[in-house]
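Handout, page 2. Input:
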Amino acid sequence: MDQKIIFFEDLGKQEYESTWNYQKTLFYNIIKKKKNHLSSQEVGYLIFVENNHHVYTIGKNGKQEKNLLVSLDFLKHIHANLYQIDRGGDITYHGPGQLLAYPILDLNYFFKDIDKYLRQLEEVIIHFLWKNYGIQGLRKKGYTGVWVNHGKICAIGIRMSRWATMHGLAFNVNTDLQYFNYIIPCGISQNRKVTSLRKEIKNDHISFHEVKQKIKISFQEIFEVQLISRK
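Output:
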């Protein structure tokens, strides 16, 4: 059987809203099957991006009044924006030093199982951590994401329609973790600790570029796809 192909783009540093709009364009292209005419091999896109400013996003069922711990005026003071967006899950932080990986896939060519898809996204990070750093990534029953010794290292939230996906995972590479102090991350009040790869491996000079390349490899292995640069 021919290997499935996903078009890959590394957008570098971008504003959150522009990336969100770009995701939606690709997402609706997949649903409509008009602009790109994806074949049975070409099954979607994978976008890597790093936010160039501080952002908090709240999913469709998020509880801003409960899980945002500061005022909107305080967010302005720390130069952070707040967006109500179209994914599942509650509130989380995105900012410099965090890798956002957005698979925009047609799951008709993989499996029609939302839970399995979420576990596959977790497995990408678990595989990456163990293969490259000998760190055991953990799941927590009843929750989505990846944890390690000192806290949650990767948050996951998705949108799905007609088995097309958007949004994805947020992996803390060398993120400034103080910005998580102003929220209850993902609405999980128990053991709110959040960590980063830099903290776990005690390396202040970790290469963001190198991390991206290694996560690409893990994504290809877990989803059994071939990534082809779109630009």
